[in-house]
Amino acid sequence: MGFSVGQVSRMAGVTVRTLHHYDEIGLLTPGDRTRAGYRRYSAADVERLQHVLFYRELGFALDEIAAILADPGADRMSHLRRQHALLSGRADRLLAMVAAVETAMEAHMTGIELTAQERLEVFGGFRPEDHEQEAAERWGGTEAYAQSQRRMAKMTKDDWERFKQEAAQTVEGFTAAFTAGEPADGQRAMDLAEEHRAHITRWCYDCTYEIHRGLGDMYVADPRFSGNYEPHAEGLTPYIRDAIHANAARAGE
Amino acid sequence: MGFSVGQVSRMAGVTVRTLHHYDEIGLLTPGDRTRAGYRRYSAADVERLQHVLFYRELGFALDEIAAILADPGADRMSHLRRQHALLSGRADRLLAMVAAVETAMEAHMTGIELTAQERLEVFGGFRPEDHEQEAAERWGGTEAYAQSQRRMAKMTKDDWERFKQEAAQTVEGFTAAFTAGEPADGQRAMDLAEEHRAHITRWCYDCTYEIHRGLGDMYVADPRFSGNYEPHAEGLTPYIRDAIHANAARAGE
DNA sequence: GTTGAGCCTCACGTAACGTCAGGGCCGATG
DNA sequence: CATCGGCCCTGACGTTACGTGAGGCTCAAC
Fold first, then answer.
1. According to the CATH classification, is domain A5-70 in 1.10.1660.10?
2. Which of residues 211-230 of A touch B (CB under 8 A)?
3. Using one digit for the tens of pLDDT, what is the confidence trace for B206-235?
4. Mutant choice from A87, A142, A237 vs B, greatest count of B C-beta within 10 A
5. A120 touches chain B (CB under 8 A)
6. Is A4 within 7 A of strand C by CB distance?
7. CA of A183 vs C1' of C22, distance in Å?
8. Which residue of A146, A186, A247, B154 has the fewest C-beta atoms within 10 A of its own C-beta?
9. Topology adopted by domain A92-250
10. Distance (Å) of CA A226 to CA A101, A132, A181, B49, B171
């Protein structure tokens, strides 16, 4: 008994070449060979292969996988814990992205018949639709997002303009604090961050500190936000993010 | 205005070299250059980059991504639909894996103090624990799995032996049908598949046709199952899977 | 006894970058 | 105004994780 390369490759859904490769680099050396030199994989070998593929799926390099599997201090339970942490992290991200796409689809459909043109008229290039998608992508908040959608949908043109003006004021404040050289974890910057959070809560949805931190990170990462802030002052976007984080830290959690 | 390579790389979380590479292969050519030859990325360029990274994350090759993004017939909505399908597929798989690891952890902890030794004694190598983990990995059934756990936990040594005997009978039947050359989608094979499904439902949990199909696939993929079937006849495992699929198709959905 | 499927070992090819090397741009600073 | 540090440029070779044959052995089956 024991399995040949072909059998193992079919079981595990990899190519024969991959098995050869893993043998070459010593990641998975079959326990035995026939007298003809054929590789013979034991059940234990196949189990090891499955662990390899598991970690590979999660994006680990082969030498890292070798290190993980070689660790003698790692018992079955610690492996499971590690795998669980890695998997749920990935799953969270994916679910957030799914939610983002769903809401984007919704926004796309409803937005068309409602206000697409009008919004463009009012805001020029700043399209809330675009921001909504990305926002959802980060905090994946099905709940908060739905809330936001409902409120936003009811807003009139006047509301939009007031909303935008308030937002602009906050940005002004941040710009002033930033160019004045005040630290991002200073009193003023944190107060502005809190004001920003309140602004969102008032107009859009209940913005927790956690969500707020997510927003801050996104501002830096997304050019549609940073592109709106950076023209005021180079480096303003990370400054705002840091202020948000400092404010969240101040607030407790 | 417009962004430099460094700025874009920081925004998107990629290296400068990656942007150079995408420029080289024509996947993402910056809209403009300064007189000094510096790349200048427009907001549209950055958006394109985000789409590229999105599909890259999902495992597409760069030339495939180029094709996707080049498709003139693809409007925003069809992109969203595609992304949604891809994402939810991945998310499903990940969630199933998370559930699998969770139940494996549970089984590991409770199993040790309960019956680990006894089960080993009875089955000599065929450890239901191991099978449970892998089963859960496929159909990720929190519900069905919990049910199974509860029922299994109550089984006595005698129950286990009857269970195993029934299982062996089914395998015998499959082996006979297989070696007799009867097709996997034939009457006999499908009946055996149905019997197998009933067997699981009786002893373990409510095995729907969908779950059953998942099991069939797993039997082929996992050496702990295939290793138990293949000794009866080479090729028996895929035969059983095909019979299960045929039976599920016959049953309607 | 030969034939076809499966296995072996080189060995070069490829995708998607990483990593220097050698050399311009440019805003601040002495 | 020189120069210094940071950012940018273009080659060009290195790396990872295999893909893809070439040429030849093995083995169950007809």
1. yes
2. 220-224, 226-227
3. 677 777 776 776 676 655 566 667 667 777
4. A87
5. no
6. yes
7. 40
8. B154
9. Globin-like (1.10.490)
10. 21, 15, 20, 15, 63
Residue B108 near chain A (CB below 8 Å): yes
Under an 8 A CB cutoff, do B11 and A220 touch? yes
Q: Is A115 exposed, middle or buried (0-12, 13-18, 19+ CB in 10 A)?
A: buried
What DSSP assignment string belongs to A43-88? HHHHHHHHHHHHHHHTT--HHHHHHHHH-TT--HHHHHHHHHHHHH
Q: Give me the helix-helix angle, A187-203 and A209-221, nearest 10°.
A: 100
More confident call, A18 vs A224? A18
A31 touches chain B (CB under 8 A): no
**Contact status of A9 with chain B (Cβ, < 8 Å):** no
Q: How far is CA B138 from CA B101, B142, B171, B225, B229, in A?
A: 11, 11, 21, 13, 19
| Predicted ipTM of the assembly | 0.56
